[in-house]
Amino acid sequence: MPQTDTPPEAVGASQPVGAKPDFFSSLKLMMRYGQGNGTVIAVSAVLATTAVALELVPVWAIWRAVTALAADEASAALFARLALLTLAAVVAGYTLLGLAMALSHLAAYRLIHALRLALARHLARLPMGWFLGKRSGGAKKLIVDEPERMELIVAHGLPEGVSSLGTWLAVTIWLFVVDWRMALAAVALTPVSFALISMAMARTTVMAGEYQRLSERLNGAVVEYLAGMPVVKVFNRTGAAQSETAEAVRAYADIETGMARRFVPLGAAFYTLVVANVVTILPAGLLMMKAGWIDLPTLCFFLILGANYSQPLLKLFNLFHNMAHISMASTLISDVLDTPAQPDTGQRVALPSHDIAFEDVRFGYGPHEVLHGISFTAAAGEVTALVGPSGSGKSTAASLIPRLYDVDSGRVTLGGVDIREIGLDQLMEETAFVFQQTFLFSGTIAENIRFGKPGATASELYAAAKAARAHDFILALPQGYETRLGEGGASLSGGERQRIAIARAILKDAPVIVLDEATAFADPDSEAAIQEALSALSRGRTLIVVAHRLHTVMGAGRIVVLDKGRVAETGRHDDLVAKGGLYARLWDDYVAARAIPLRPGAPETQKPGAPHEKHSVPRMETAQ
Ligand SMILES: Nc1ncnc2c1ncn2[C@@H]1O[C@H](COP(=O)(O)OP(=O)(O)OP(=O)(O)O)[C@@H](O)[C@H]1O
């Protein structure tokens, strides 16, 4: 559900508020991920410079024609030659500019592609702890929106920037060569324009960090608002839920307006002055002509060329104006890419067995320690159940096995080897995990199950689905295994999604399987069937099951009872019940809860323990 009290630091912003952009970060990213693009960019810049230089040909032709007229040397042949030359220069200029832009866009999209891939790959290698407190909107913005900003700098900034600067320098020299006094008049306003735009940019650049943060907040709030829509609706909290989204929209609009307000007074003066050279050229030129220092053609030349003399600068500053945002984005991208990946030895280790052991494991999410030195063994070939009150650390302990998080101290071993010594690829091959909250990708059901083993044959696929009791309902769907799922598997029921996830784990055929409340959504018949399938699966494998519904683990070889992040007791069901400790209390509560009739006067439901029993009581703890 959208949060209304999200602290600024929890919205995925890795930039501190008010952070200044590093203007070299884009360049560094280009050098790092733009390999092979250097030549393309250089050729593009040369073509663009040539194209812009060709734009000067018509100016020269006019000047030449005016000079000829003034000297009484004009002829039809001369004008025809000048016209042809102008036409050729314009056509060639546009062709070269088109080529330059095509090349620069090619380079830009190659870079964006490389950046997005690098980010997606690197995010997958970051420890889960990095994602804590980050909103999915922020991550989406990081991969989708931020690299896109590089388009402006590579596709436009480099060719147009280089050519604009080149043209401006060439024109300046040309002006001075023709007449240095008129040239001074033509460039007189340029330093003033420079000073104005520098001040305007300095006034907005200080807000770039805050702008970035608010833009991430907006993304996060909108994504969360849409994802939480069902909760928002059923609790009729549209107004309340929107308040964070509306606030994020308002804050973003405020900062944009604020930045515009700070930029506009000086920025507008710059845009006016930068093309106002005629204001100094005309009076100075008329005075100098009157004094006999220059002739009419020279005045015309300065009026034509000098009046637009700063046009390239305008382009340049339009690009610079966006540099703060671009630099902020590239700093953010670099920060993420520089975040150390989860340590991985990359080694394949010969494992003598697939026993899992927790040895004095301590772990916390951030400073808040959740597991306070737990030790237990899950032997290969038997089912080990993790049970305990809500919040006791069952899911957390389970998530340490596939290294979703790394222990803070102690160790988790597989076959006696610290799992941090085993290469991540191998560890992922050795373990399959069914999450409490099943995630299915949009795509077909077959694709989702095959996620566990991409090259699986159709018969392997069906066998896994049958074992997970998913085959029949899949066949009943309109396109069977080829039925496409909505985002997150939205078109299936909770139980169906869970069975697909179990099929995925079964297909993976890993020696270690961790099931976090895997049958929570299953109906009683399916649950019993899935339990049978899982028991069969446990033969020769290490099966670790996190369970709330205690009857599902009555047959477990070992039950590890967690309490407030510590192992309270371990043993088999009967022994633990007989012992009269925490497990016995949990069991009594469970039995009592299952016996509570749903409606006053309804008959009591069957006591647990009987196979295939139908129970219509609210589930302990998982019921919300
Ligand atoms: N991502 C997280 N960030 C911070 N704290 C977390 C996170 N996940 C769990 N916790 C905290 O860790 C503790 C243990 O949670 P965990 O989910 O492991 O318990 P559990 O026994 O599996 O609970 P449940 O039975 O309700 O699923 C809880 O206090 C919980 O608030």
UniProtKB/TrEMBL annotation:
The protein's name is ABC transporter ATP-binding protein
- UniProt keyword Transferase, yes or no: no
Which part of the chain is the ABC transporter domain? Answer: 356-589
Q: Does the keyword Protein transport apply?
A: no
Name the species this protein comes from. Rhodovulum sulfidophilum
Question: PROSITE patterns given for it?
Answer: ABC_TM1F, ABC_TRANSPORTER_1, ABC_TRANSPORTER_2
Give the taxonomic lineage as stored in the record: Bacteria, Pseudomonadati, Pseudomonadota, Alphaproteobacteria, Rhodobacterales
Start and end of every ABC transmembrane type-1 domain?
42-325
State the compartments where it is located: Cell membrane
**Coiled coil (UniProt feature):** none
- Taxonomically, which superkingdom? Bacteria
Record field: transmembrane: 40-63, 83-112, 158-177, 183-202, 263-285
Alphabetically ordered keywords of this record: ATP-binding, Membrane, Nucleotide-binding, Transmembrane, Transmembrane helix
Write out the GO MF terms: ATP binding
